[in-house]
What does this fold into?
Amino acid sequence: MAILLVVDHDNTSLSEQTAKALTAASLIGDEAGTEIHLLVAGEGVTAIAERAARLAGASKVLVADDPRYTDGLAEPLAALVVSLADGYDTIVAAATSSGKDVMPRVAALLDVSQISEITEVLDRVTFKRPVYAGNAVQTVRSTDAKRAITVRTSAFAVASEGPQVPIVPATTGQHQYPASSLVSEQLAKSERPDLTSAKVVVAGGRALGSAEKFNATIIPLADRLGAAVGASRAAVDAGYAPNDWQVGQTGKIVAPDLYIACGISGAIQHLAGMKDSKVIVAINQDSEAPIFQVADYGLVGDLFELLPELETALASRSATKS
Amino acid sequence: MRILVPVKRVVDYNVNVRVKADGSGVELTNVKMSMNPFDEVSVEAALRLKEAGKASEIVVVSIGPAKAEDTLRTALAMGADRAILVETDDTIEPLAVAKILKSVAEAEKPDLVLTGKQAIDDDSNQTGQMLSALLGWPQGTFASDIEIADGSAVVVREVDGGSRTIRIALPAVVTTDLRLNEPRYPSLPNIMKAKKKPLERRTPGDFGVTTEPRLIVMKTEEPSGRKAGVIVASAQELVQRLSAETGTI
Ligand SMILES: Cc1cc2nc3c(=O)[nH]c(=O)nc-3n(C[C@H](O)[C@H](O)[C@H](O)COP(=O)(O)OP(=O)(O)OC[C@H]3O[C@@H](n4cnc5c(N)ncnc54)[C@H](O)[C@@H]3O)c2cc1C
Ligand SMILES: Nc1ncnc2c1ncn2[C@@H]1O[C@H](COP(=O)(O)O)[C@@H](O)[C@H]1O
It folds into this structure.
């Protein structure tokens, strides 16, 4: 049977996380003839549907263009997915804040368990997923008639470009769902690369001491490297950085090529969000800090001295390079 | 207004969890157990609503082994009014938990259910959403602020790009994020008082819910580990080595 992938978007652009979840969906459907349908629900989402239709692995794009789905509220979206579920044995979404909001509703309404944040596909019904903040990895096999899955996107590559596939309207009937409404949105607009897709992440912890010092110390280095900025929970709780920068068990899970942790001790809950990065650099004045146990390169000292030095070293290097 | 707060007994967040050598699970003997940190936040949120005169009664419920009574007593010591223990030694998946909680909610008729965003053992992040779907109530997930007024809740939700504020009609299910509040510690006199607060015992069978797992755990293993690398002497050396050895900059 076919696979349905629920596309994550903000009414303007398709989330790169969906392109990673599609890679997982393709592995699940790795059997001749399994179709993967991408569901784009929203209002005025033609451009997103066209983008989705060019992702390699997609067989078809279903568009539900309807004001009910404009605000990305979980209740109508879950009802829509459930109304389409008959044709699918696997329903997949990226484990974004939207995927995590919607998919458990879908699972419950279909009376199936959800398989959260898979990191590996073993076969159509068997997956690996981390538990205990990534301290253990379970292999789980589903016995349900259908599977509702969220994908930990840091574990999968972005699906490549493919030939344009057909875009068709989805059947959107009357659904029953509890009403709720969007009051306002406070979304950060930034020129910076997105935390979950950046190649380089510079992250700051409690040691930064204030929002001003965070901005004065972490941001210039990130700018120099074209990096996204991350933070520990301690830094976010203290108001040095916005909540959507938090990396960890309860924040974002990232796996960039390079992760530079500055003044972060390396609590297990923080490591849960970044220990699959390719190269980890730790800058901390305490040589015993647990972060050094996962770091490929460590620099022991005061970050307020070391980060400006690092920036200078990077600047002189790019000067000699050009 | 009545608030129902499901609380889960989990391995304490400070414990360094170890996988058993035979791959059958994680080591749970002689390991410190505590209330799921998110559920402490939920209890605290409920207490503040009661203190603000918005709620009249806080009922806490836990599904788990007899020892989950300790978790419920902690919630009672924080200030909850009464507790329900749904006793079972089976591992129960979020879907079964949600089904039991649905029955409890139908009996208790709360105006608000406050679950945690996720349990730090299974890291599922499902139960609240599932409960909301099964009850046909609206949901407000990952809450960092909750205001109750005129039969509805205004919930600030932490989302990937920042935050979103939604309005949901009560009764509703809200799942709590850590930034909602800083939970209080129970005082000694309140710990003593909590021992006398009412605690009702039930079983999943009382609610007609079967707890048979839908997901079979085939194996539990250690994550692929990382080794400590090198300590470099200066920022300059770091740049040289990153460039020469990793090609990441
Ligand atoms: C349920 C739960 C979920 C959690 N989820 C997350 C999560 O998602 N993400 C997360 O990050 N945390 C999370 N935490 C919190 C986590 O346990 C730690 O408290 C947090 O990560 C600590 O942040 P930190 O490393 O910035 O602060 P600290 O642990 O205080 O470390 C600060 C570090 O800075 C160093 N330092 C100080 N001054 C300097 C200086 N001038 N130069 C260089 N180094 C300096 C110190 O040596 C120290 O190592 C969670 C906790 C719980 C209970
Ligand atoms: N066994 C349980 N008993 C009581 N509450 C639970 C139980 N399991 C999950 N919950 C609630 O559901 C939330 C999310 O758990 P989970 O979906 O397992 O990540 C927890 O924070 C609790 O509020």
Notes: Residues A 205-207, 232-235, 246-251, 263-265, 267, 269-270, 273, 284-286, 289, 302-304; B 13, 37, 120 surround flavin-adenine dinucleotide (ligand 1) (CB under 6 Å). Chain B has a mean pLDDT of 97. Chain B touches chain A through 82 residues (CB under 8 Å).
